[in-house]
């Protein structure tokens, strides 16, 4: 096996998706401990412990405690090279959160057993689904009384519409929790309180009578047998294509079932996958270097106006100082300043392989979705999809004299992918669309900091955008409750107040085809 193939095979690039508070930070910390990047848990989280990395990122990030250095975490574990991409939640939810999912080969979905499938998980799940990537489920907080395991599996299947396969089965929960029956590795993992696990092979389980004859165990075994008979069969093919999710039960905080989960995950998860271009599919093993930009982090240092572009390597080997071409502009550029993200530090990277994420200095030449390649054969990857915004505001410059700067700032920030811009039909007002409040805050901050323009927002609020298939629509059908706007390509988009007004409109106008861009396969 040559070196490139070997490096590709040992890479696992994934994101952890969950609703806030399900335990993503806690689980990530445990993984970092396994990888020896941190010695103890509690060092990652910025907000609560106040230990966020000292860096000169933009003020707004400091205020919110978002640590950009932790947006990609790389480490070695059991001879694998692990790249974890962060998908910020809460009010930090932005289009970047979605775009990050275009740069991974698999995802880990955390579900809190006391809550089940929650809204933000559904949104992120849909994006993974669109890409057909494998999704591994970790049902967390088994040390608490939660929903019944069978109910949780049913919820995953019904709400998310994906087959589930329990890799292990919990025996009790909360105070009654005895451990998990690991059907994949054929061991019973015994719960002994915090940070301790005892592994009992199935063949020896009958000898441990305090477990095998425990009423909770007997009950769990009944449920489990039901699942064996009526549940889905495990299919690695389905898992690799995102059609079945292997489900693990455990407790992140107690570090229970986490390592077994992680080992199984890295065994089964996809290595870096080929990537589709407009013409063909690029294999990671190809000698030619290629990659694409999925995120641009602006203004880390306001004095220099520099930006960092996050590049996912798709094929070949990245070497620092190499000259590449940007597909969109056909311009050659030498990549001298490049960084890799090792847990809490950014380090200059000399080499990177498919599946790796590197940060490259952006003097203002990149856009989200740009393809970079070496050699003469042009590579142009498929576009990164546009994600439907949920939050809309009307925006104007506070000082009308600043119109020119305002226009310039908006154009540049929209091009960069920081926010989506629409124009109201009829009035031509500027309307911004974002998937979370953070995007609006960042826009406001950057307009002031970089273009010296103070903006005024007039809230339009949450809306459900639907693109109109037919551009020759009767514009009189729209009013303030279903506002009509045009996107940056000039296509009509109707913004509905809520599900009710959407259905009402659709019932009245069945011939008008409304497109939900988040529901496309
Ligand atoms: P997030 O990144 O997904 O938002 O979640 P995070 O890891 O911060 O966890 C949210 C809360 O859930 C934290 O408690 C955390 O300690 C707790 N938690 C995580 N895993 C488990 C688990 O396996 N069992 C139980 N019982 N709790 C768990 P907190 O009180 O909000 O914060 P903290 O003060 O403990 O940091």
From TrEMBL:
The keyword Disulfide bond does not apply. GO terms for cellular component: cytosol. It holds the Pfam family EF-G_D2. The keyword Nucleotide-binding applies. This is Peptide chain release factor 3. InterPro entries: EF-G-like_DII (IPR053905), EFG_III/V (IPR035647), G_TR_CS (IPR031157), P-loop_NTPase (IPR027417), PrfC (IPR004548), RF3_C (IPR032090), RF3_dom_3_sf (IPR038467), RF3_GTP-bd (IPR041732). The gene is prfC. HAMAP family: Rel_fac_3. It comes from Sutcliffiella cohnii.
């Amino acid at each position: 096996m040559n070196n490139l193939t070997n490096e590709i095979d040992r890479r696992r690039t994934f994101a952890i998706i969950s609703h806030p508070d399900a335990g993503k930070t806690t689980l990530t910390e445990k993984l970092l401990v396994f990888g020896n990047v941190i010695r103890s848990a509690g060092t990652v989280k910025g907000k609560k412990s106040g230990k966020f990395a000292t860096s000169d990122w933009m003020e707004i990030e400091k205020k919110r405690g978002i640590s950009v250095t932790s947006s990609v975490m790389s480490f070695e574990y059991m001879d694998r090279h692990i790249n974890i991409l962060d998908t910020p939640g809460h009010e930090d939810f932005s289009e970047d959160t979605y775009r990050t999912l275009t740069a991974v080969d698999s995802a880990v979905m955390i579900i809190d057993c006391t809550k089940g499938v929650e809204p933000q998980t559904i949104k992120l799940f849909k994006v993974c689904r669109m890409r057909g990537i494998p999704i591994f489920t970790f049902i967390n907080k088994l040390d608490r009384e939660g929903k019944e395991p069978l109910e949780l599996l049913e919820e995953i299947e019904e709400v998310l519409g994906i087959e589930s396969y329990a890799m292990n089965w919990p025996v009790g929960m909360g105070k009654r929790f005895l451990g998990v029956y690991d059907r994949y590795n054929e061991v019973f993992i015994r719960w002994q309180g915090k940070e301790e696990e005892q592994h009992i092979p199935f063949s020896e389980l009958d000898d441990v009578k305090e477990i095998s004859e425990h009423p909770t165990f007997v009950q769990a075994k009944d449920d489990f047998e039901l699942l064996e008979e009526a549940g889905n069969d495990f299919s690695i093919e389905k898992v690799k294509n995102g059609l079945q999710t292997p489900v693990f039960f455990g407790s992140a905080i107690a570090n229970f079932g986490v390592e077994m989960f992680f080992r199984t995950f890295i065994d089964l998860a996809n290595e870096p996958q080929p990537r589709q271009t407009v013409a063909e599919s690029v294999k990671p093993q190809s000698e030619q270097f290629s990659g694409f930009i999925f995120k641009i982090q602006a203004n880390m240092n306001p004095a220099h106006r520099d930006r960092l572009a996050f590049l996912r390597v798709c094929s070949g080997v990245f070497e620092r100082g190499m000259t590449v071409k940007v597909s969109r502009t056909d311009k050659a550029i030498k990549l001298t300043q490049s960084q890799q993200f090792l847990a809490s530090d950014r380090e200059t990277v000399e080499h990177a392989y498919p599946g790796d994420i590197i940060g490259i200095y952006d003097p203002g030449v990149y856009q989200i979705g740009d393809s970079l390649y070496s050699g003469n054969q042009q590579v142009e990857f498929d576009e990164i999809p546009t994600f439907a915004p949920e939050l809309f505001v009307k925006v104007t410059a506070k000082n009308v004299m600043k119109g020119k700067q305002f226009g310039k700032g908006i154009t540049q920030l929209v091009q960069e992918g920081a926010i989506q811009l629409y124009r109201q039909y009829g009035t031509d007002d500027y309307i911004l669309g974002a998937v979370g409040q953070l995007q609006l805050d960042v826009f406001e901050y950057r307009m002031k900091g970089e273009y010296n323009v103070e903006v005024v927002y007039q809230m339009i609020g949450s809306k459900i955008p639907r693109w109109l298939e037919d551009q020759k629509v009767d514009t009189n059908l729209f009013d303030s409750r279903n506002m009509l706007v045009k996107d940056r390509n000039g296509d009509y988009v109707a913004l509905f107040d809520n599900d009710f007004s959407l259905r009402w409109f659709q019932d009245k106008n069945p011939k008008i085809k409304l497109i939900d861009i988040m529901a496309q396969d």
